[in-house]
Amino acid sequence: QVQLVESGGGLVQAGGSLRLSCSAFARTGGGFLLGWFRHTIDQAREFVAALAWSGGTTYYADSVKGRFTISRDNDTITVYLQMNSLKPEDTGVYYCAAGSPRPYNIYYNSARRYEHWGQGTQVTVSS
Q: Which region among 69-78, 86-95, 109-118 has the lowest average model confidence (pLDDT)?
């Protein structure tokens, strides 16, 4: 079983920045798809960003393009979410998720694509 642990959440004022980390304690490299989702007041399991480990292709929700960046560290098997220009509507519990290798990643923005989930980390953005 893949274990994912998120960290880096906290309280920040609007316009500020946070960096979330997702550490893997089992093999998640290779053809795995790594994603970030969030639970907000308005949506459950809202897609935020994803990264295909093999090749490094990234995907973003329209609401975070230009503000958030997903990246990886191959040596530590860690995925990051750098969040800049945060808005109050970004408030929520952020989850890291991993999806098993598939021939394609067309469903990168669907929670059903991912089999493994972290415990979540709270992000609160004040106005």
A: 69-78
pLDDT of residue 98: 94
Nearest to 80 by CA among 34, 45, 125, 16: 34
Torsion of CA 109, 11, 16, 22, to 10 degrees: -40
pLDDT at 49 over 90: yes
Angle at 51 between CA 49 and CA 54, to 5 degrees: 175
Report whether 21 contacts 6 (CB < 8 A).
yes
Give the integer Cα–Cα distance in Å for 88 and 109: 22
CB 88, CB 32: distance < 8 Å: no
